[in-house]
Amino acid sequence: MDHAIKRRSFLKLAGLGGAIYVSGLSGWASAAATAGSAYQDFFFVQLSDTHWGFEGAPNPDAHGTLQKAVKAVNSLEQQPDFIVFTGDLTHTTDDPQERRKRLREFKEIVADLKVKDVRFMPGEHDASLDNGAAYQEFFGKTHYSFEHKGVHFIVLDNVSDPAGSIGEAQLAWLAAELQPLPADANIVVFTHRPLFDLYPQWDWATRDGAKAVELLMPHANVTVFYGHIHQEHHHMTGHIAHHAAKSLIFPLPAPGSQPKRTPLAWDDAYPYRGLGYREIEAEAAPKTDFKIVELPLQKG
């Protein structure tokens, strides 16, 4: 895959470093790369938990971090097929006008991304106080699906319900989405919260996530990308791989590693430590494979 090799070489030469390659993960092999398949190589970028509007010591550059991420993605040697933000675009506010102001400002900043195919979803900070009403004014539906080069992408909303549920209506929609897909279809799911019980004591779970996993389980090639926990994390439920992304505002502690879910302190010696974004490469040849490339956010 020439373009991937060139991109990796560029990252190394550019000194961006910190890239981690995760390949050969169980559940990632696709049966879609067959003769006549629409499947093709591509890659996309995941950014998460930007929390626009946050102010505080855990990130003294809270007003500049999102712009740095936009600049970093725009600086990639090769632009991704599309970009996805996995929730918490803005930081919680009780003021509906301020909520809309933050959503508007966020949208204006990310409009500078070179790639215009940008997918959004809400996090609980965007949507749980008004059931996603303000979010939908700016970004449309909170759950939807789309196709890209032979992969069926499904965006689930597990945050507009303040109780952290997907809800029966959306689960019925998910079942209808999956019903016509073959058992070996290549499926990628985007959520904000984890669909499994990572650490419910810290609200790191989806109340009815097990029902969504049960619906996905008959399909052999399913991968879930999510945000919410502000750190890289990998987990398997059966053959389904789940991958959490770092945030763009402040890192959070490992599940259960300290009494409270408080942000990790900013380190002046290593600014932006724990913040980052990721590329996801989908390669169809010589055998279908997906690779995660973690990229740190850096000063400058």
Distinctive features:
disordered N terminus; alpha/beta; 300 residues; 7 helices; 22% helix; globular
Describe the overall structure:
22% of the residues lie in helices and 21% in strands. The protein has 7 helices and 12 strands. The strands form 2 sheets. The protein has a 6-stranded mixed beta sheet with strand order 1-12-11-2-3-4, with no helix packed on it. Strand 6, helix 6 and strand 7 form a beta-alpha-beta unit. Helix 6 runs parallel beside helix 7. It is globular, with a radius of gyration of 18 Å. The two termini are 31 Å apart.
Shape: globular
* Low-confidence segments: 1-6, 9-36
Give the proportion of residues in helices: 10-25%
Mean pLDDT: 88
Q: What string gives the helices and strands in order?
A: HEEHEHEHHEEHEHEEEEE
* Content of β-strand: 15-25%
Radius of gyration: 18 Å
Strand order of the largest sheet: 1-12-11-2-3-4
Strand count: 12
Outline the biggest β-sheet.
6 strands, mixed
Structural class: alpha/beta
Q: Total number of helical segments?
A: 7
End-to-end C-alpha gap: 31 Å
